[in-house]
Design a protein that fits this description.
This protein has about 325 residues and is mostly helical. The chain folds into 2 domains: about 1-90, no CATH class; about 110-320, MetI-like (MetI-like fold, Orthogonal Bundle). About 70% of the residues lie in helices and about 0% in strands. It is built from 16 helices and no strands. The chain has helices at about 1-30, 35-40, 50-60, 75-80, 80-90, 105-140, 145-155, 160-175, 190-205, 205-220, 225-230, 235-245, 250-255, 265-275, 280-285, 290-320.
Length: about 325
């Protein structure tokens, strides 16, 4: 297993380089270092000297991919903005944002509000989706099953943004049950988290229930299920003792891979509810054209996703001894 993990980590290097390359291309297709300097300096009349000084201080005076003024072929490729910044990212040195803040410190501070939102949403949604899917499989083909599938498709067809706005209007503005936005640490912050958590669970209910239902329906007609019924087991024991257990492998694919990325936060949810997490941090960086934060968050998200994939493969061996990592 150790050799497998090392090999997967080595495979991740070109993937991360590609992700970083795409980030640079997309960002600098719509922005130039001069535009970034003007946005950060925030002055209407910015002199060329101030712009050049800002670029030199943050390293944006270097060529993007090829430095034709450098001596030697190696220096032509390495003395560039892409290589210099990429090396720092692979060393997990995020440095300072274009506005001068320490990115590493911001990440450590903002990851906790993101976790307070993402973790309960993830757990509640997982339990709810699996429970409803098992209920529909138990009553498969009935009016309950059909009506719930229609409702699930309707939930999927509506944008999550609608649920956020509707939830704020109804529960905050009209009924005044919870604050419309804000954040607070400790138990007093529950009132700020409960609405975005419930909206996040509801918005993903349609897709989650339909996916888990399809997994369980695939298992319900297998030979081992018919054997269990022939032995006299009740339908509930068949569902929870056999179908749920044997459906864990495909469930793990969608669950374990998400766990490492939970602290990255929800971009839209955090922005609308004023939660100072990593999601709103990224949105604010995009709006202010802060490339240092954008590339750091994209790189970190890619690293966490790769870790999630590796953990998924490892978890397969724990739930199914037939799976061998090689």
């Amino acid at each position: 297993m150790f050799a497998y993990i090392i090999r997967r980590l080595l495979y991740a290097i070109p993937i991360l380089i590609g992700v970083n390359l795409i980030t640079f291309l997309l960002f600098f297709m719509v922005n130039t270092p001069d535009d970034m300097a003007r946005a950060q300096l925030g002055a209407k009349q910015v002199t060329p000297e101030l712009i050049q000084s800002w670029k030199v201080k943050r390293g944006y005076d270097k060529p993007l991919f090829i430095n034709i003024q450098a001596d030697g072929t190696l220096a032509t490729l390495t003395q560039t903005l892409f290589v210099q910044e990429s090396l720092k990212l692979f060393a997990f040195e995020f440095g300072a944002s274009d506005a001068g803040r320490d990115i590493g410190s911001d990440i450590k501070q903002r990851m906790w509000p993101s976790l307070e939102l993402a973790l309960p949403t993830f757990i509640i949604a997982l339990i709810t989706n699996i429970s409803l899917a098992l209920l529909l499989v138990l009553f498969r083909g009935s009016a309950l099953d059909t009506s719930m599938m229609v409702i699930a498709v309707m939930i999927m067809s509506i944008s999550g943004l609608f649920y956020i706005i509707a939830g704020q209007v109804v529960f905050s503005k009209l009924w005044h049950w919870v604050p419309i936005s804000g954040f607070e640490t400790g138990w007093g912050g529950i009132k700020f988290i409960i609405l975005p958590v419930l909206l996040g669970v509801f918005a993903g209910l349609g897709a989650g229930v339909r996916w888990y239902r399809s997994i369980f329906l695939e298992q319900i007609n297998q030979d081992y299920v018919r054997t269990a019924r022939a032995k006299g087991l009740s339908e509930l024991k068949v569902l929870f003792g056999h179908v749920l257990r044997n459906g864990m492998l495909p469930i793990l694919t969608g669950v374990v891979v998400v766990i490492p990325t939970l602290f990255m936060g929800s971009l839209i949810m955090e922005s609308f509810f004023g939660i100072p997490g990593l999601g709103s941090y990224t949105i604010d960086a995009i709006n202010s054209q802060d490339f240092a934060i954008v590339k750091a968050m994209v790189f970190l998200g890619a690293v966490l996703y790769i870790i999630g994939l590796i953990l998924t493969d490892i978890s397969y061996t724990l739930f199914d001894p037939r799976v061998k990592l090689s």
